Amino acid sequence: DVKVTQSSRYLVKRTGEKVFLECVQDMDHENMFWYRQDPGLGLRLIYFSYDVKMKEKGDIPEGYSVSREKKERFSLILESASTNQTSMYLCASSFRDRDAEAFFGQGTRLTVV
Amino acid sequence: RKEVEQDPGPFNVPEGATVAFNCTYSNSASQSFFWYRQDCRKEPKLLMSVYSSGNEDGRFTAQLNRASQYISLLIRDSKLSDSATYLCVVNVSGGYNKLIFGAGTRLAVHP
């Protein structure tokens, strides 16, 4: 079974803190994604990585950065957390093939206070 | 304009009904298309891919219209267990499988 594991299910952080969200996949997938999901807005792509050390901005990269030093791990970093970054964060991974299925982690509910 | 647009619903239908969802996409270079399903408080999971010739999987039929840039999903004989949010997904970067999701259409099937 494919497994995508996110480090935390729930997280509460203070405004201005640096926040790290970690994601690990065990299927040797080339692609990894970070999305955030908000009511009425659906899943919005923050960053995408198609290989180690490679990254591409998604639709809403402002306020976020990412790191992919190893193929199985993709980290999302909030440099200085703000209340408008309170959201559900979902990590996903897939093979690079155009028809490949994406597998998701269980999500991290982040609250910034 | 959003890259992938869907009617948010909700669609409230009785068991046994047939229901259809549409989705439009803006990038004419998009190469592959999918429907994902997301249950309440769960992660999205692949329901089916959408092929140019149309494809069927049991009670579910997916169609693609490249000329009009829309995708559809038809569910026949709805079950209570079909209640979920259906997400339209487009690969906007054929070489890398970069996936963009629509906001989803919520379906509620009632007895």
How would you name the oligomeric state of the polypeptide chains in this document?
A: heterodimer
Q: Uncertain runs of chain B with pLDDT below 50, 5 residues or more?
A: none
Q: Helical region count of chain B?
A: 0
Gyration radius over CA of chain B: 13 Å
What is the number of beta strands of chain A? 11
Strand content of chain B: over 45%
In whole angstroms, the N-to-C terminal distance of chain A is: 37 Å
Average residue pLDDT of chain B: 92
Helical content of chain B, roughly?
under 10%
Number of helices of chain A: 0
State the order of secondary-structure elements of chain A, H for helix, E for strand.
Answer: EEEEEEEEEEE
Per DSSP E runs of 2 or more residues, the count of β-strands of chain B stands at 11
Q: Judging from the principal axes of the Cα atoms, what is the shape of chain A?
A: globular
Task: Indicate the percent of residues in helices of chain A.
Answer: under 10%
Q: What sequence of helices (H) and strands (E) makes up the elements of chain B?
A: EEEEEEEEEEE
Strand fraction of chain A: over 45%
Mean pLDDT of chain A, as a whole number?
94
Please sum up the structure shown.
The complex is a heterodimer of chains A (113) and B (111). Chain A is mainly beta.
Describe the 3D structure.
- The complex is a heterodimer of chains A (113) and B (111).
- Chain A has no helices and eleven strands.
- Chain A is mostly beta strands and 113 residues long.
- In chain A, strands 2, 4, 5, 6, 9, 10 and 11 form a seven-stranded mixed β-sheet that branches. In chain A, strands 1-3-8-7 form a four-stranded antiparallel β-sheet, with no helix packed on it.
- Chain A is globular, with a radius of gyration of 13 Å.
- By secondary structure, chain B is mainly β.
- In chain B, 0% of the residues lie in helices and 56% in strands.
- In chain B, strands 2, 4, 5, 9, 10 and 11 form a six-stranded mixed β-sheet that branches. A five-stranded antiparallel β-sheet of chain B has the order 1-3-8-7-6, with no helix packed on it.
- The interface between A and B is medium-sized, with 28 and 25 residues.
